[in-house]
Design goal:
Elements lengths: L7 H8 L29 H16 L3 H13 L4 H10 L2 H8 L5 H9 L3 E3 L2 E2 L12 E4 L3 H19 L12 E4 L4 E4 L14 H13 L1
Antiparallel strand pairs: 1-2, 1-3, 3-5, 4-5
Length: 214
């Protein structure tokens, strides 16, 4: 299954806030009650697990095959599979750029990487899924076009950060931003409480584990 390129607001109405996909906030419209509509709708366990999986997929902009491969890698690693999965996704280069504020969304960050605007440790990296590690130095290519683009994103990021409380600050502790040098530093592996998406990762693991059993 290919990467989703359809209307983003449609996914927000169904799954809730997905900051990596778009910065828009979903607005639920109030509908007039219908006589034959039940007063409540009870979701099945499969439906709940599927929604959590879809949140993860659309937020990080992954194909179904990519997400399944990440789950397999996490299952073979030491530690809890769900936490390792989130760490793997958060340490992707496109997500690191998004969390640093060098892009407003993960698709924008992916475009920066694909168009060779980004260096990692002094070398051009054009793979959005490049796995960053502690000690990596991420810089923007030294030309006017690249830096003016990123500057616009950083300005929007600063406005967003100034409107948040200290407890809700946008930049997580595992990253450092040197704004005037157009540089970001990866300090450490991200802690699960700093993940930028409210997700029940255990349900995602259960979704794929039940698929493999059938």
């Amino acid at each position: 299954m290919s990467r989703y390129r359809g209307p983003r607001y449609k996914k927000l109405r169904r799954l809730g806030s997905l900051p990596g996909l778009t910065s828009k906030i979903p607005i639920k419209k109030q509908r007039a009650p219908i006589r034959y509509r039940p007063s409540f709708y009870k979701k099945s366990q499969y439906h709940i697990r599927l929604e959590e999986k879809q949140k993860l997929r659309f937020h990080y902009g992954l194909t179904e095959r990519q997400l399944r491969n990440y789950v397999r890698i996490a299952a073979k690693a030491k530690g809890q599979t769900g936490q390792v999965l989130l760490q793997l996704l958060e340490m992707r280069l496109d997500n690191i750029l998004f969390r640093l504020g060098m892009a407003s969304t993960i698709p924008q960050a992916r475009q920066l990487v694909n168009h060779r605007h980004i260096f990692v440790n002094g070398h051009i990296v054009n793979r959005p899924g490049f796995r960053c590690k502690p000690g990596d130095i991420i810089t923007v290519r030294d030309d006017q076009k690249s830096r003016s683009m990123v500057q616009n994103y950083l300005n929007a990021f600063s406005l967003k950060s100034s409107s948040q409380t200290e407890k809700e600050k946008a930049l997580p502790n595992h990253l450092t931003l040197r704004r005037f040098e157009y540089t970001g530093l990866v300090n450490q592996i991200i802690e699960t409480q700093s993940v930028g998406l409210k997700i029940k990762e255990l349900l995602v693991v259960e979704y794929y584990s039940r698929q493999t059993k059938t």
